[in-house]
Specification:
Elements lengths: L5 H40 L9 H14 L3 H11 L1 E2 L5 E2 L7
Antiparallel strand pairs: 1-2
Helix pairs in contact: 2-3
Length: 99
């Protein structure tokens, strides 16, 4: 049986290496694309709002924020994270410690 051409074997090895590298690059590109798409969806789902609060509510919010070491908008965001609607349509926020 004739011995395979060493040149063809080295080309096959090199071609296989290139194919694996190309596959790895493709997988990386697909993963980056998926991450970018998730970020885009998250950005569309975010809500930015401006709230005007009474002086009394503002003072209480600032005091709470100062005691917790947070900014007032961080406390407000945590409140929004925890708000839910009960079966009667009433908004409810269970007691929590801002962190």
């Amino acid at each position: 049986m004739p011995e395979p051409d060493r040149h063809l074997q080295s080309q096959d090895v090199q071609g296989s290496t290139w194919a694996r590298e190309r596959d790895a690059q493709r997988e990386g590109a697909l993963a980056r694309r998926a991450a970018w798409q998730r970020e885009q969806q998250d950005a569309r789902d975010e809500l930015k709002t401006q709230v005007w609060l009474s002086a009394d509510v503002s003072r209480r919010l600032r005091a709470i924020a100062a005691r917790t070491g947070l900014r007032p908008e961080q406390v407000t965001a945590q409140l929004a994270d925890r708000v839910r609607m009960d079966d009667d349509g009433v908004l409810v926020v269970d007691a929590f410690t801002p962190r």
